Amino acid sequence: MMKLGQMLRREPLREASGRTGAWDGTLQGMQPVLTSGLIAGTQIATARGWRDVAEIKEGDKILTFDEGMQAVGTISRSWAYLGHGSVPMQHWPLVVPPGALGNRAEMLLLPEQPVMVESDTGEAMFGDPFTLIPALALEGYKGIERARPHQAVLVIVLHFATEQVVFANIGALFHCPAEEVMSIADLMEDRFVPGYEVLSLTEARVFVDALLDEDAQDAQWMRMQPQRREEKSERAI
């Protein structure tokens, strides 16, 4: 997995609209509208097996994509969609059908939660098959759609010593932030480990369009296989 120092042609990790917080400044019923984090019920791979993210405690060991088992630092817990009846559509969560992102069961994602997607398209476009994008860019991909929230949900953000990508619901991959933002002085230290990058929403939508084209081409190729086998059989007679 390439990191920030290796892939400077991409933009630094950020929320889809360029923000760095977990909410967009909008208030619903005097509560912030959260846009990233993992929703309670999401199963996370830990040293003790798959566990609900809501049950994770500080110090628990979590399986990460690049660095094996890592201890969780601080944990943030907040409620989203407390005023669910008046939440603007742009803040609605996304419903991910089983299998769409390697997940075994249906999942609910906040719109700006960074999601890692593995694809040949990513390899061709960025030189890396693993690409981090904001979840909302996946709308329309493999049945992923927005859904009006009908109840409040508990949102958990796991913070590690450095940014990590964790495994969820068997095969899905989600970004988790570092405990604190690094300063310019930290960037100059040899011990500093560069963070991940996420595409901007515009870049991510171009990428997802390319994924859709790739899937369409694969589907067409599969449809043509019976005809090609039949033609090959006829030539052999």
The portion of residues forming beta strands comes to 25-35%
CATH superfamily name? Hedgehog/Intein (Hint) domain
Under the CATH scheme, the architecture is: Beta Complex
The CATH C-level class name: Mainly Beta
Number of domains: 1
What about the largest sheet?
A: 4 strands, antiparallel
> Averaged pLDDT, please?
80
Shape estimate: globular
Q: What is the helix tally?
A: 3
Pfam families: Hint_2
Organism: Celeribacter ethanolicus
Biased composition (Basic and acidic residues): 8-17
Region (Disordered): 1-22
What can you tell me about this protein's structure?
- The protein has a single domain, classed as Endonuclease - Pi-scei, Chain A, domain 1 (Beta Complex), CATH 2.170.16.
- Helices cover 20% and strands 29% of the residues.
- It contains 3 helices and 16 strands.
- The model is unreliable at 1-31 (pLDDT under 50).
- The radius of gyration is 20 Å and the shape is globular.
- It has 237 residues and is an alpha+beta fold.
- It has helices at 120-126, 184-187, 201-236, and strands at residues 23-28, 31-34, 38-39, 43-46, 49-52, 61-64, 68-71, 75-80, 94-96, 107-109, 114-118, 130-134, 145-146, 153-158, 164-168, 172-176.
- Strands 12-11-16-15 form a 4-stranded antiparallel β-sheet, covered by helices on one side. A 3-stranded antiparallel β-sheet has the order 3-14-8, with no helix packed on it. The protein has a 3-stranded antiparallel β-sheet with strand order 10-9-13, with no helix packed on it.
- It starts with 22 loop residues before the first strand and ends with a helix.
